[in-house]
Amino acid sequence: MAKKRPAFYHFLGCVTPHRYPSVEKATNLVFEDLDMDLLDMVGATCCPAPGVFGSFDRVTWASIAARNLTIAEQGGHPITTGCNGCFASLWDSNYELKHDEELRTAVNENLAEIGRVFKGSIEVTHYVDALYDTAGLPKIRKRITNPLKGVRMALHPGCHWMRPKLIKQKDESERPHIFRELCEASGAEYVPYKDELICCGAGGAVRTADVKVSLEFTKQKFDSLADAGGADIIVTPCPFCLLQLDLGQVEIEKYFGEKYVFDVMHVTELLALAFGHSPEEFGLGTHLQYMQRKSQPNWERLGINV
Amino acid sequence: MTEYFASGRNEYLPLQPRSFGNGFKAVIQASARSRCITVTTTEEKPAIDIDDVDLEFIEIIKKTGGPNIQNCYQCGACSGSCPAGALTSFLVRRTIRKALLGLKEEVISSPDLWYCTTCYACTDRCPQDVKPTDVIKAIRNIAVAEGYMLGPHQKVAAKVVEAAHAVPLDKESWQNLRVKVGLEPIPPNASGNPWAVDEIRKITKKSGFEKLIGYEEFMKAQKEKAKKKAEEKKAQKKE
User: Fold this and answer.
1) Which pLDDT tens digit goes with each residue over A154-182?
2) Beta strand extents in chain B (DSSP E only)
3) Are A56 and B193 an interchain contact pair (Cβ–Cβ within 8 Å)?
4) Is the ipTM of this complex over 0.90?
5) In what order do the strands lie in the sheet with A263-266?
6) Which of A266, B41, B90, B198 is 20 to 30 A from residue B121's alpha carbon, by CA?
7) What is the pTM of this model?
8) Which of residues 28-57 of B touch A (CB under 8 A)?
9) Helix and strand tally (H, E) in chain B?
10) Cα separation of A283 and A23, whole Å?
11) Over the stretch A88-114, which tens digit does the pLDDT of each residue have?
12) How many Å lie between the alpha carbon of B174 and the closest alpha carbon of chain A?
């Protein structure tokens, strides 16, 4: 009997489907290649952003997040999401609601208004978990037909997949290795830099409140990477970090008059390329940096003939 | 006369270790973002007004998501780990110290509070399990409840109530981008499902969130703004 294909409810969030659809398309390709099913979450909303809504009103934040969880609970499959922010809202609320009875009561009172109830019956995963734990590196390595040999790759793991480390228990947040191993499976060469692990600057409602300050974080990362000798690509597991690092280059040029040119990719886009998909197949060129600068990815450096 | 680093009002002592010792002046000059105040005597430097102390503040923080705040022994690992602390005048340790002293009004009214990106670097390094990020979020909840909400934050909060997405599919060009990469123009989320937006409205009404952010007033003001803009445009066309 054939082994049952793993299935996940696909939580899209806001930034991926509404600003970086190439990530959604690349994810569909990669999961299909790895024999994993992605199921639509019809009527899912904003996660809602953990640092934003969690900072305004914890009960409302947990209620909206729990509503999203109930959509998956009805079907009985785990959720997977490719956004560190969405992962934080859904994973954290799932965890907190399972451990904090007072919060759970308050949330279920709100959910009763729409005939829903949080049961706590499903798990929340990130694409990184689905790829690393469910598919596994051996299967991923077998699927690589276009190893990105010679491509210098810097990483931006971001924050909310692995932090807070004691609660999430995903990776050692001071010396993470899981995201790196996953990206290295593509064949690209890992380039370390000093500020790899600092925040991109977008989270916690800082980008919303003061975009210039948020870009100072991003600039610090870019300068640190330049000091380390630069890289051909920066890879991240989060579309909000992607937006900050990609569109952020255009904004930094506007606010600070300094031009950086880095190709930035989501990890599923990196894997889609390594799995032999052409960049047109998922629209790598639609990243907002290229749309606004009327530019293109540096195909030569990426070793791609177009 | 000694010059000290300061970034806010009513400063007591320099809190950054890097500002101690020799080269004091040089450090001050090197940091363009920091303001300098002059401290000579206690008369010139207002002391902490003990009448303003709100001892209930700690209890509320403990209830709102920062139960371990009283574990703090002010080591500063949080501020030392904080990328925002290096770039702005926000200091986690100072915020927690002031909160522990019961200086509620000073803590919740400070715009610095909103420079934390919630990266949890401090939480992962805190030797006392204070969970500073959760403490900051708890304090922000209290700040919002007491009316300290920044304009752009009110706007994004209203966006979620209105469209169920903080970053909505609000232009045709975003739909075209989806089509360009080979996807359906509208994803299966709330963007194409008005009933989901209704559910969010019901939740935010029931939880008191709409009232908290002044949703009705905000939307009314937005509408009037848009109307005025349209009228101005019309008038310009006539000219």
Assistant:
1) 999 999 999 999 999 999 999 999 999 99
2) 2-6, 35-39
3) no
4) yes
5) A189-190, A152-155, A233-236, A263-266
6) A266
7) 0.90
8) none
9) 13, 2
10) 9
11) 999 999 999 999 999 999 999 999 999
12) 6
